[in-house]
Amino acid sequence: MKGMSKTPLRKTPIASLLAATLFSGLMLSSTLATAADAPGKLLSEQAGLPWPAVIAHRGASFDAPEETIPAYTLARELGADYLEMDIQRTKDGVLIAFHDDTLERTTNVAAVFPKRAADPISTFTLAELKQLDAGSWFNKAYPDRARSSYTGLQILTLDEVIDIAEGGSNKPGLYIETKVPAQFPGIEADLKKALDKRDWLTSRPAAGAGHVNVASMPGRVVLQTFEKPSLELLQQEMPQVPKVLLLWIGKGSIEPKSDVAYKDSGFKDKASYYGAQEVKSETEFAAWMDWAKAHGAIGTGPSAKLTHGGDQSYMDLVKPWMNKMAHDKGLVVHPYTVDDDVDFKKISEDGVDGFFTNRTSQLLTFYGRPAKESMEEILKRYGY
Ligand code: G3P
Ligand code: CA
């Protein structure tokens, strides 16, 4: 679950864009026609969540460096329902938004703290983390999406992400993952304190007409985790907040049918290996649904196998029978991390209730509610 999609950015002529928007609208109409009474829609409403949900995975992270100001600002301005973030804790106890276990992939830690490059986040103070450049890596990795203004972007605190969520006319929610929670004992209680301090657990401010209004819903915050012990602690700390158990096949997660390791499997890439993984049995899958439900989850976040592969293509845990089972057990389904129309369509038809996506704009268009402004316009308006 590390690394970013390498799907190239396509330059689309206006006519094609209009045709695609119309086509997506038609596709959506047909999807909605069959899904008007979709069980997941009803379940989402009962849990106080938007349906179908557009969850901006690490912000609009296809177009800006993940979990930085432009990524979250872009997601908010485009119209995402949720800003997704991974929470970790600094040495001096501050909650920050950061995905990887170490700083190497997305910062210049090797240049600033050469002896500590592979050290965990928990060994750095916030002041140290704020010295790092969390934007330049993106320009190197994706030159076709690079912007000089991304150079020198900082790692953000939870408070700074909340500022962004609150800071525009659109009022998105936050979809917060406790990342490697075993490394951060007590992080669930810290998260509760931090959200409480910003009044995010009780207040539900309404947005103006025509704007994203998830902040006014009971699902203003959704808590997510891969780890059962963390889900139990989140439920203990914040029983009233909707929670989602993230699903994976492998050690500590759902048992596989075959436990051949990648290195022994003969597959040439991880996406193919993951894509071939199957759950041990329907009973095993059902046990995870039942456990999630019994421990306070209102939904699951399954992995998805992507048509074009890539480093975010994982196990297919969104087969129709799986989605039906989740719904039958009263759980909504939000798969991660899906970026292409072909997968939005296929997986929607298989019965899910939204997506984690790096491409907020594309998913909004697929759902028939395209952004009112282009990404270029938004980025320029905010000085990027
Ligand atoms: O939180 C859902 C999805 O983000 C899980 O994958 O590794 O990107 O956090 P990851
Ligand atoms: Ca995440």
Protein described:
The chain is of the alpha/beta class. It contains 16 helices and ten strands. The protein has helices spanning 14-35, 39-47, 69-78, 109-112, 126-129, 136-141, 158-166, 187-197, 228-237, 262-265, 270-276, 282-294, 320-328, 341-349, 360-366, 375-381, and strands spanning 53-56, 82-89, 95-97, 156-157, 173-178, 221-225, 243-246, 297-301, 332-333, 354-357. α9 links the parallel β6 (221-225) and β7. The protein binds SN-glycerol-3-phosphate and calcium ion. SN-glycerol-3-phosphate binds at residues 1, 57, 86, 99, 177, 224, 246, 301, 336-337, 356.
Structurally, how many domains make up the residues? Answer: 1
Q: Tell me, rounded to a whole number, the average pLDDT.
A: 92
Bound molecule types: SN-glycerol-3-phosphate, calcium ion
Kindly report how far apart the N and C termini lie. 28 Å
User: Structural class per helix/strand content?
Assistant: alpha/beta
* CATH architectural category: Alpha-Beta Barrel
For the sheet with most strands, the description reads: 10 strands, mixed
CATH topology: TIM Barrel
Radius of gyration: 20 Å
What is the chain-wise order of helices and strands? Answer: HHEHEEHHHEHEHEHEHHHEHEHEHH
Annotation field: number of helices: 16
Query: What percent of residues adopt helix (DSSP H or I)?
Result: 25-40%
Task: Kindly estimate the percentage of residues that lie in beta strands according to DSSP.
Answer: 5-15%
Multimeric state of these chains?
Answer: single chain
Low-confidence stretches: 2-26
Strand runs, count: 10
